[in-house]
Amino acid sequence: MRQPYLAIISLLILTGCVVGPDYRRPDYPTPPQFRGETAETPMAPVSLGELAWWQVFEDEQLQELIRTALTENYDLRIAVARVFQARAQLIGTRANQFPFVDANADAIYNRVAGDRPPLTRQETFQPIGSLDLSFELDLWGRLRRATESAWADLLASEEARRTVVTTLVSDVATAYFQLRELDLELEIARRTLESRRTALQLVQAREKAGVASLLEVRQAETLLYTAAAIIPTLERRIAQTENLISVLIGCNPTAIPRGRPLLQQLALPVVPPGLPSSLLERRPDIRQAEQQLISANAQIGVARALLFPQVALTGSGGVGAIGVDGTFFGPQGLFAIGPLLTAPIFNSGQLRANVAATEAQQQAALWRYLQSIQLAFREVSDALVEYRKQREFRIQQEALTETWQDALRLANERYEGGVTSFLEALDTERELFSAELTLAQAQLAERVAIVRLYRALGGGWQMESAPMQSPLQVHAAGAKQRALQR
Fold it and tell me: Domain for residue 7, yes or no?
């Protein structure tokens, strides 16, 4: 009698199929190059996005801040907890593909008392121990599709964690560069304040000697107070930026140690964007959207499998005994096994509506995936244009600042020689101060544009393991290797 059951079960297992569509990556037309690249864009063996963050940001103090942030930041801790949650859900979902065995133990005591026939006093005691088996035969692949979906959810949570890492690295670097730029502005303001204090003393001496007028003294005082008024604002912004960095690295507001000055940050020989097609494999947000699409695609198979009959194998085996009025009979054996069939007959279209809902969710996931690719290309293009234009602006601002420096020198010589009034030197010095501050801001904007490009290219999520060469060392090694080959 057991052989027909075993033959039927083996046949069902071997002939089981998987319903629902198999995943295929959607096609997306990738451009031959990023919009914003020019003929002057340097070629390099690797893309900027392929470099690890400790290769791009070579400031030792900045590297230490990033390491602290990757350990203590709460957003990243939340993302890691979600990875653990998805991993546990995967284990729980996959467990449904295997048999469940439960142990049961009963010790039932009954006492029936009576004083009239046919009721008589009787006591029974029946201890039983058994093992119960339950195993669903995955004939239509419902459990396998559910496991596929849970596995994709786990990978999506891991890519979400990498996205948080990329964002965190770029945020810490941007805030640190802003801090160093504010330090530079404060240095310029204090230097200008000292220069104007010296100029005021000179004008006051000339006024006492009858060479200069009281109006010139007031004009020199105006310059002095203007520079002095900027310093508290810069100090406030510096403290607030330090508080921002403190939160990013997961600690209470505190002072942030400095490393290299702003002009020594991001000393990259080239800023290559790489091939557009590689962006799909490198950006974690695109990979997260694809894993979410895979999960939604597998859920269609789960929903469709519910339209078909479900077969489960149940069984039980155990031993027991029975005692009647103090007399035991046993031991007794128990064994039972057989299939359990469940087939949907009438459910008012609920199962088919569930299939339609999962198909709509899959379509939404598809559009989100394609949209993430489109947004990625836009971000890279925006960053390329921003970097190129900010670099051009910085070059022009450097030339303008040098011109105003020379103009101030000439104006002071003309004023000291009595050729012109103090008003000309005053206006020139005011324009130079403004140009120096604008130059510092332009130098910051150029470096922030590189950080944004690095993030847009999908860089920054690489884990730090072994020390790697810097970009300068990489290119130097490549040039040496080519020379040896020649």
Answer: no
Look at 4-13, 353-362, 447-456 and tell me which has the smallest mean pLDDT: 4-13
Residue 295 covered by a domain: yes
> Domain for residue 21, yes or no?
no
Residue 50: closest CA among 483, 460, 370: 460
pLDDT tens, residue by residue, 192-226: 898 888 888 888 887 888 777 788 888 888 888 98
Q: Residue 324 in contact with residue 150, Cβ under 8 Å?
A: no
Find all residues with CB under 8 Å of 448, minimum gap 6, and list them. 174, 177, 178
In this prediction, residue 329 carries a pLDDT of 63
Strand-strand pairing, 100-112 and 310-324 = unpaired
* Domain count of the fold of the chain: 1
- Let me know: does 169 contact 71? Beta carbons within 8 Å: no
Task: Please report how the helices 422-456 and 350-416 are oriented relative to each other, as an axis angle in degrees rounded to 10.
Answer: 150
In angstroms, the first-to-last Cα distance of the chain is 81
User: Would you tell me the crossing angle of helices 214-248 and 142-208 to the nearest 10 degrees?
Assistant: 160
Rg over CA atoms, the chain:
38
Decide: 146 and 296 in contact? Cβ < 8 Å.
no
In degrees and rounded to multiples of 5, residue 470 shows phi and psi of -75, 165
3 state DSSP class of 49:
helix
Nearest-angstrom CA–CA distance, 325 and 284: 73
Say if CB 262 and CB 440 are below 8 A apart: yes
Tens digits of per-residue pLDDT, 430-453?
889 999 999 999 999 999 999 999
The C-alpha atoms of residue 126 and residue 334 are separated, in whole angstroms, by: 13
pTM comes to 0.82
Domain that holds residue 295: 30-464
**CB atoms closer than 10 angstroms to residue 96:** 15
Contact 452, 386 (CB under 8 A): yes
- Number of continuous H segments (helices) and E segments (strands) in the chain: 11, 4
**Residue 24 located in a structural domain:** no
Question: What distance lies between CA 329 and its chain's CA centroid?
Answer: 68
Q: What are phi and psi of 353, to 5 degrees?
A: -65, -35
CATH number, domain containing residue 176: 1.20.1600.10
Quote the CA–CA distance of 182 and 69 in Å, as a whole number: 22
d(CA 262, CA 140): 62
DSSP-based three-state secondary structure for 264: helix
